[in-house]
Design a protein that fits this description.
Two copies of one chain form a homodimer. Chain A is built from twelve helices and twelve strands. Chain A has helices spanning 6-13, 17-24, 34-47, 53-60, 76-91, 105-117, 132-140, 164-177, 193-207, 224-237, 248-260, 294-310, and strands spanning 65-70, 95-100, 122-125, 145-148, 159-162, 182-188, 213-219, 242-245, 270-274, 289-291, 318-321, 324-326. In chain A, strands 2-1-3-4-5-11 form a six-stranded parallel beta sheet, sandwiched between helices. In chain A, helix 5 (76-91) packs across helix 12 (294-310) and helix 8 packs parallel to helix 9. The first copy, chain A, is elongated. The first copy, chain A, starts with 5 loop residues before the first helix and ends in an 8-residue tail after the last strand. At the A-B interface, helix 4, helix 5, strand 2, helix 6 and helix 11 of A face helix 4, helix 5, strand 2, helix 6 and helix 11 of B. Chain B binds a DNA duplex (30 and 30 nucleotides) through residues 3, 5-7, 15-19, 21-22, 25, 27-28, 30-33, 36, 51-61.
Chain lengths: 334, 334
DNA sequence: TCTGTTTGTTTAAACGTTTAAACAGTTTAA
DNA sequence: TTAAACTGTTTAAACGTTTAAACAAACAGA
């Protein structure tokens, strides 16, 4: 079962391979004889010819594939994003190669090199901590590139993100309006700007009111299962009456602790999550959370990327999308 | 910022491009002058040369990439599998291109063609309903291929799956041992063999005991949100005291219904799930489930695929892995 | 001195496409 | 009648690698 080549089609149709190529690519249609064209199309059909993508790409210097490096593809946030980006790319005739850095900078760098070796036409990146110079270097090499979720304020690179500061600010206002007096904030110990913005927004909001206080606990990403329980225990000890989880993984670890210790929400302590997960469905009470517009983010990222691919001289564009504060996940459709 | 080519390196080192290629690929090491080799390596380093993957692949007729088509990448089962397969491929120096058929056969076919056009070296497929002839055709074309999760008993293709029948059989035995008398089974209305095996195993198990009865409800995949509530309502009406959800999506939809109607588990009705999800963490009582050995499945699939890629004449190998019945997800690590 | 071997390197074809340029034959315009 | 323009098709170079084969120089054995 040999591979069918352009040459085989040409032979069968009794023409040169150039003719087959022209017909297949719809070029010189005004010049080519209708009968010949039809003969070629028939041969293509009969032999079930499929062009070799590698050869095409090599010649055209375009692979019609995009790369997406997620922060952690096992995380719902990433996988849903991947799904949307994949669909968008697909619709435009592009394939998507997905990688997961697992928040490791060396791994991130390796993946980028892999993708570039494979000559992807553009990159969508959820960049891990400390990867700013790396991103800068890519930009200097004029590689079409869009950051998603995370971004570096000192870098002028196209990006899609949400209003982390405002979202947190508003969420805390809501908690205070609900009468919470002492708010605990859980965040990663990180330099990632978007996460710190979440904390800053929360703090600024709480500072406005002098009857409410807060305490902020930093968690090492790789020690979630140890440090989150400790932090929550400490908070509860301090009389915290609301906890703000600034990421979904922190939230899940936190809720697991609360459940294991029979601490009920919102009666004993109330909670607020950044990001939505299916797990909320299984908790007996509504759990309010900040929803990111995943679909819009993915679509916008692909859109910005295509823009750049079409015109490398275009200036960077930072797109900031609005989040929404959702009171409950339950009973939405029943 | 022009791309650095083999030619540029050769020029810089004052040798032919063949020499550079030989040095880079570690060939003819006994012949090549040590100094020349070093000079070439220096030039490679200084110019930061990266080989063009397309050109390499075209020449070598090998792309060092695998394709994985998931049933639904937004489903935890698929995304975790993707993660494992991706890691395994990565370790072997292969990239993974991921697609999601969303259980649609036409989409599945399109994805396969895309992947083959891109000359992937092998495929790992979670095949949707009715795709048996398609798989057969691929096999006839001698395309290295491993089925995962789903398989077709009438086809002799390499596959990795779990003991669906036995898992269900044992799970039902456990429910009966716990005193359940009337068991409801929820399954998709499908011809997918692995799902039907789950039902068959359950039925065979229950039939053994004449004091226990069961009823089985078939759900249309695209109407889950309507049909699952209806089925559960009907079951409860019939006095069912245990429900077996044969897939995680069915389980989640089912639990959402139970929660919205304040029906508690296991006091009012007990449950059993095929597949594990993070959502179980958030339910106040332990929820028993059948666990599939995801990591083993992914690893085995990659292993079988590599085997085939290395020797196309090898016979198909069906690998059936053992599941485990887990009583509770909670308190495992605290 | 001649032949054969070893060492170090280059030449050139190949992988499967795309496409500018060339070509031959026919028609049109002056 | 001759040149210009058009029609339909082919030729051949290019994309960036790999690698078999050829080559040249140095050396060894007779």
């Amino acid at each position: 079962m040999k591979k069918v080549l352009l040459r085989d089609v040409a032979e069968k149709a009794g023409v040169s391979i150039a003719m087959v190529s022209y017909v297949l690519n719809g070029q010189k249609t005004d010049r080519i004889n209708k009968d010949t064209a039809q003969r070629i199309r028939n041969a293509v059909e009969e032999l079930n010819y499929r062009p070799n993508f590698l050869a095409q790409s090599l010649k055209l210097k375009k692979t019609f594939s995009l790369g997406f490096i997620a922060a952690d593809i096992a995380n719902t946030f990433s996988s849903q994003l991947a799904r949307i980006i994949s669909d968008e790319a697909d619709q435009a005739g592009y394939a998507l190669i997905i990688g997961s850095s697992d928040e490791s900078k060396p791994r991130f760098e390796r993946l980028i090199n892999q993708l570039l070796n494979r000559q992807v036409d553009g990159l969508i990146l959820a960049a891990p901590e400390g990867s700013d110079e790396l991103i800068k270097a890519l930009q200097d090499r004029k590689i079409p590139l869009v950051l998603i979720d995370r971004y570096f304020p000192e870098l002028s690179v196209s990006s899609v993100s949400v209003n982390n500061y405002q979202a947190s600010f508003d969420a805390m206002s809501q908690l205070m309006k609900d009468g919470r007096k002492k708010i605990g904030i859980l965040v990663y110990d990180t330099t990632l700007h978007h996460l710190n913005e979440r904390v800053r927004g929360a703090q600024d909001s709480i500072i406005h009111s002098d009857s409410v206080s807060y305490e902020c606990h930093s968690i090492q990403e790789d020690l979630i299962e140890q440090e989150v329980p400790a932090a929550i225990a400490a908070m509860l000890n301090e009389g915290v009456d609301a906890i703000y989880f600034t990421s979904n993984k922190l939230g899940i670890a936190g809720m697991r602790y609360l459940m294991n210790h029979q601490i009920t929400v919102p009666t004993q302590v109330s909670t607020l999550f950044f990001d939505e997960t299916e797990v909320f469905d299984f908790y007996p009470s509504p759990l309010p959370f900040i929803r990111q517009p995943l679909a819009d983010m993915g679509k916008k990222a692909v859109e910005l990327l295509f823009k750049q691919m079409n015109d490398a001289t275009l200036p960077a564009e930072a797109c900031v999308l609005e989040t929404s504060l959702v009171q409950s996940h339950l009973n939405v459709d029943q």
